Amino acid sequence: MSEAAPDPTALADLLAGDVAHHLHPFTDPRELRRRAPRMIVRGEGVRIWDAQGHEILDAMSGLWCVGLGHGRRDLADAAHQQLRRLAYYNTFFHTTTPQAAELARELTALAPGDMDRVFFTEGGSTANDTMVRMVRRYWELQGQPRRRVLIARRNGYHGSTLAAASLGGMADMHAQGGLPLPDFEHIEQPHQLALGLPGETGQEFALRAAGWLEQRIADIGPERVAAFVMEPVQGAGGVIVPPAGYAREIQRICRRHDVLLVSDEVICGFGRLGHWFGCQHPHIDIQPDLITFAKGVTSGYLPLGGVLVGRRVGDALALHGGEFEHGFTYSGHPACCAVALAALRALRTEGVLEHVRERAQQRLHAGFAGLARHPLAGDAAGLGMTAALMLWRDKARREPFPAEAQVGLRCREACFDAGVVMRAVGSRMIVAPPLVSTESEIDEMCRRIGLALDRTRDGLRADGWL
Ligand code: PMP
């Protein structure tokens, strides 16, 4: 189905206004002035349409969030009904709403281990900021106020607020505005393709990479370390899947030094890896002290995030902490909670996690194994409904393209032109399709990516890069 053709004058006017007045996240405004943004106007299932009526397969689930696909009546109706009944009330100062209360009960019932409390935020960044304040408060209550340092990983992404951006390990973000803030430290990521030694097995690399944490804790002094924070699979860093055994070893190290372990499940939660939480995937298999989440909890239909808190920290805060001097106007927003309840119901009743585990993830990874045979691409990786490919100038020698070739951006644009959304992280191409993608939709995404790889190669040849 395609959209009715837009009025070209009205569209040109809208786009001109966007370029002139809209400061976009993570976008170079010079690029926008050279070429107006694509305007996306409609979505249905795994498909979106732009203002010119082009149909595009949304293999990134929006921004990793639209797990249940676009255009669902049940989620829209949940929001609509709640907005009419009670559009807003807060959860400060001794009040709550039925939707916030019910969602707190549902989420803590789903959460692994003894996580029986949740704090609601507006998204993933504020979930991570909240988590930072919680763990520091926890250590104050334990009489160890010097335990303030949070350790995370290079190329991890935890959000764009000051604490979340400090926690993240993105060099380009830190280069602007004097980040990270004090008491945020980073270790290398468990990325064997980039950091493995010749002849090193996955298991050896897993132990060596986890050992970087133990070394850093020793350097800082365990008495100063509050928590270690990791994504089960690093998403925005390029879908970096740690080798088997890495996460378990990280957990052992945290326990040995009494450091809290936090799993940032903003991407990996709610079915992305085929389980309610990414830490439950057998390849990860850890029991964190806290989980931060957002995105998939509402399938992106309305903004909501939060922190799930295990008993150790939760009891300290709730029984001994007094008032927690923290909160957001939209913490527990009733319409967002109503949509989350509807999304959880859909994930449960439609067997979405089973679909990911039993069908969709195999199809996706088989498709990417096929794409890795393309002369331009190799080293397919992924877990659950995430997948990545590297683009190489010389695949046999793993020779990368120079940065000026902008190979990732070329491929991203070629994908859009071929009717599929793929994201570029340097010269690593990544996807995270809707969890509900059928096998034939996944095959079609891969077919279009294959076409885009051909066209990217043609363009690189024409410009003398190959
Ligand atoms: N953590 C992770 C792992 C993320 O991927 C993101 C967003 N992509 C965030 C936190 C930040 O979430 P938000 O953009 O909702 O603030």
Describe the structure.
The chain has helices spanning 8-21, 29-34, 61-64, 73-85, 98-110, 124-141, 162-167, 171-174, 192-195, 202-220, 246-256, 311-320, 334-349, 352-371, 407-418, 439-462, and strands at 40-44, 47-50, 55-57, 117-121, 149-153, 184-187, 225-230, 260-264, 290-293, 305-309, 377-381, 387-391, 423-425, 428-431. The chain is α/β, with parallel strands linked by helices and 466 residues long. The chain has two domains: 38-71 and 351-462, Alpha-Beta Complex (Aspartate Aminotransferase, domain 1), CATH 3.90.1150; 75-349, Type I PLP-dependent aspartate aminotransferase-like (Major domain) (Aspartate Aminotransferase, domain 2). The strands form three sheets. Strands 4-10-9-8-7-5-6 form a seven-stranded mixed sheet, sandwiched between helices. The structure holds 4'-deoxy-4'-aminopyridoxal-5'-phosphate. The site of 4'-deoxy-4'-aminopyridoxal-5'-phosphate has 16 residues, from α6.
